[in-house]
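User: What would this chain look like folded?
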Amino acid sequence: MKTTPIVLVTGFEAFAGERINPSWEIAKSLPSTICSHRIVAQRVPTVFGSAIAAVAALITKHQPSVVLCLGQAGGRSCICVERVAINVNDARIPDNDGNQPVDQEIVAAAPTAYFSTIPIKTMVATMQKMGVPAEVSNTAGTFVCNHIMYGVLHHIATHKLNTRAGFIHVPYLPSQIVNGSAPSMALSTMQAGIEAAIGAALRTRQDRKLVGGKLD
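Assistant: Here's the prediction, encoded as C-alpha cells.
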C-alpha cells in the first residue's frame, strides 16, 4: 500500500517572557494536506540540544520528504527564508532551560555550515507574488533557530536521508507589539505565505536563479 508523503513542519514554544510564538501558531493552523502531502505539525522546545533531538526523533518516526522549521524573529518585517545555518551557538539570552552557550560549536568537528536544501528563492518569489512580504535571509542568527536548522541538516546529511529541509523566520504577531516599536504581521498573512511556500517547495526541485543577495 502506497503511503502518503509527509511534510514535517515545526514551530517553537514561546520564549523570553512571551506568551505566544507565531511560528507554532502558523504551524498548527496549516491545512492537513498541501500538494497531496500530509502536513505533520509539531511544537518543539526553545532549548539548545533538546530542539534538535526532538526533530531528529520526528524525522525517524515520520520519514518526511520535507522538513520545514519555523521560528520567530522579532524585529524583522517580512517572512525570511533562510539560506544557511552555521555551526555555532552564541546566545544573547538564555533558552527556556536557562542555557546560554557562548561561542560553542553545535556539533564538534562537523562542517562549518549547511545550506538549505529547499528552493529558497522560488519560495520567496511565490510569497511575493501573492502579496506577502518575503525575502531571502543570509543569517539565521546564533540562537536556537540557527541551532535547529544546522542540527536538522546535519542529521539528514550524516544519516544520508533523501529529505529536503530548511528554515523560515517569521515576524511578531500584532498582539505581541503593544507600543508599535517593532514590525509585525497578521497571522492570516503569515499562514497564507507559509502554505504557499510549502507548495512551492513541493513543486520545485531546482531553485530559480533570482536576485536575492544583500549589500550589507
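The longest helix spans residues 187-203. If you want, I can go into more detail on any region.
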